[in-house]
Design goal:
The complex is a heterodimer. Chain A is α+β, with helices and mostly antiparallel strands. Chain A has four helices and seven strands. Chain A has one domain. In chain A, helix 2 packs antiparallel against helix 4. In chain B, the strands form three sheets. Chain B has a six-stranded mixed beta sheet, with helices on both faces. The chains are: A alpha+beta, B alpha/beta. The interface between A and B is large, with 47 and 54 residues.
Chain lengths: 195, 400
């Protein structure tokens, strides 16, 4: 086979094309910042070495009160973690565990947090077990309370979380029980919080 | 070995060149423009392509779709809609397929199209058709079935002249006037359940049937129920029933439930868009037809197009929906003796896709034993129906 050197022109072409591809890839990736779960960038819990003395962190959980239709804060200590994902997961678990002050948790106590992750756009995906639907009492007020106790608790305590998407058993659901639309992320509604 | 490397490099270079050309296409961003204008007896839509492109034109119900198949990418620039016959322009894309969707206010039109080759223009003229002959509104067996073909003729209230063959007024003035009442839940989906076993789905149906009777007795409206018995109807189909019947008003009837034992009272909801980016984008798009859709809504087939159009539907009617909610709430307060919980906004799934003023009435709380007893009583159900009916009468008067 005959040896032929690649001409400088060909190299230039190759170089230019390579730059073009890089630009294209950059443009495509910047444009593809969708909120779909499949394409979402996930911040995984960081693998930090086991700390000898775990620090506590105080957060506010938002529960319903029998007295009014508002969400009331209750201080709760959770384990501090370098990853907000771990902290956020504890926050939802504590919401499910319920109030120590006689407030009402609008989440069925059997509910488990299956997974939680936060995209770099600040959308927290909270994947809950089927009990959140199966044991839900239904009703517009009840569904609103369930949704916004989670959304307001997460957005209030964790700055990077701007919106919350609620999943059930790993997938998007239409509603919990026929009312509030779960097929979109929620922004917090602080008007529901007691002052 | 060397040769192989070279070949690889060459192939790579060609491959990159291909990408480069793609990139330059993307950078140039050819634009497809869409504009509209009303003439004496027709409405004209002009689609201007950047070059000569193959396309097909297709009518489906009230939608006209221009399909373009092309490997290059486009932007759509829609001028503000200047035709009373046209609701909006939008577009969807999937791979090489681009579809411009012209949303016409109703499906009673005929289109005539021609091309101006020099300008790469497609001109579509829409001629509005007269109403179909009088027909009794049929009792639909399955409410989620296809749109009912029958139309009831009514003289346009705005004019004394006998209905001309081609008339360009609003569909409300021309067609049947329909109110859709949506009894919440049904079938396996029981909704809330009271302590004494009262089911939300039964209460909502009972109130809705009474409301239908009241309306049809005294108002010149046809009432379509999303269900007239105990059956499952999906939330999307409920909105679809309203849209397929070109409902002028949509009322969803519910009974509330709370985690709070003492929760009580009546409230009327209208849709909140939940202020997400997506909703903001939809809203901006609806309010500003000239907006350039740089990131077209990605979708595949016609069903998806319908979904997108319907998903956006309610956002255009929020102001009217709020007014309707206020008036109905006012009547609930004066008739029921329940606590006034006021009007509220929430992202209700069932309201999202409804293309007319739409509200959701929470008559009282099934989770409250006293109110459960009320809700189970026929006199209370009749009062709820009365209150909503009076609200509707007031609203219709206000808007006419």
């Amino acid at each position: 086979m005959k040896k032929r050197a690649i001409t400088p022109a060909q190299w230039t072409l190759f170089g230019l094309s390579l730059i073009a591809v890089l630009i294209l890839v950059a443009v495509l990736f910047r444009g593809a910042g969708g909120e779909k779960i499949k394409s979402a960038a996930v911040t995984s819990p960081s693998e930090s070495p086991a700390e000898p003395a775990p620090e506590a962190k105080t957060i506010a959980l938002f529960f319903l009160s029998e007295d009014d239709n508002l969400l009331h804060p209750e201080q709760r200590k959770i384990l501090a973690s370098p990853s907000i994902v771990e902290e956020a997961e504890q926050a939802v678990e504590e919401l499910i565990r319920g109030s120590d002050k006689g407030y009402i948790s609008p989440l069925p106590p059997e509910t488990k947090v299956r997974q939680l992750f936060v995209t770099k756009e600040g959308v927290a995906y909270v994947d809950l077990s089927r009990e959140i639907m199966e044991s839900h009492p239904s009703g517009s007020s009840a569904e609103l309370a369930t949704v916004y106790s989670i959304v307001n608790t997460l957005a209030y305590n964790f700055k990077p979380i701007k919106k919350v998407f609620i999943l059930v058993e790993g997938s998007e659901k239409e509603t919990l029980s026929g009312h509030i639309n779960l097929s979109q992320p929620f922004v917090p509604l602080y008007s529901l919080n007691a002052r | 070995m060397r040769a192989l490397n070279k070949t690889t490099a060459k192939r790579l270079a060609h491959f990159c060149l291909f990408f480069f050309s793609l990139l330059s296409f993307a950078a140039a961003q050819p634009t497809i423009r869409v504009s509209s204008q009303d003439h004496d007896d027709y409405s004209r839509v002009i689609v201007t392509f950047p070059s000569s492109l193959p396309f097909t034109l297709e009518k489906d119900g009230n939608l006209l779709m221009v399909r373009i198949s092309s490997a290059s990418s486009f932007r759509l620039k829609a001028e503000p809609v200047k035709s009373r016959l046209i609701k909006s322009f939008s577009w969807v894309t999937s791979g090489d397929l681009y579809i411009i969707v012209i949303d016409v206010r109703h499906d009673r039109f005929r289109q005539d199209s021609f091309q101006i080759e020099k300008k790469h223009q497609l001109v579509i003229d829409l001629y509005e058709l007269a109403e179909l002959p009088v027909g009794e509104a049929a009792v639909v067996e399955a409410p989620e079935a296809a749109p009912e073909p029958e139309k009831k003729e009514e003289p346009p209230p705005s004019t004394e002249v006998a209905a001309p063959p081609v008339e360009g007024s609003s569909p409300e003035a021309n067609g049947i006037r329909t109110i859709v009442i949506d009894p919440g839940h049904g079938g396996l989906e029981i909704g809330a359940k009271g302590k004494f076993g009262t089911l939300e789905k039964d209460i909502t149906l009972a109130i809705s049937l009474r409301l239908k009777a009241l309306i049809e007795k005294s108002l010149a409206f046809h009432v379509e129920l999303t269900r007239d018995r105990d059956m499952d109807v999906s939330l999307e189909n409920r909105a679809a029933i309203a849209n397929n019947h070109r409902a002028e008003l949509f009322i969803s009837i519910h009974a509330n439930s709370s985690y709070r034992r003492n929760a009580n009272g009546s409230e009327t909801f209208f849709l909140s868009l939940n202020a997400t980016d997506e909703e903001a984008r939809r809203l901006a798009y609806l309010e500003n037809n000239s907006a350039e859709l740089d990131s077209p809504l990605a979708t595949g087939n016609k069903d998806d197009i319908m979904m997108i159009l319907w998903d956006m539907a309610q956002s255009a009617y929020l102001k009217q929906s709020q007014r309707l909610a206020e008036i109905i709430q006012d009547e609930l307060n004066s008739l029921l003796g329940t606590r006034d919980r006021g009007i509220k906004q929430a992202p209700f799934k069932v309201l999202t896709g409804v293309a007319c003023p739409a509200v959701l009435v929470e008559a009282a709380f099934l989770s409250n034993p006293e109110e459960e007893r009320d809700l189970a009583q026929q006199s209370f159900q009749e009062n709820v129906a009365q209150a909503v009916y009076r609200g509707l009468v007031r609203y219709i008067k206000l808007m006419s």
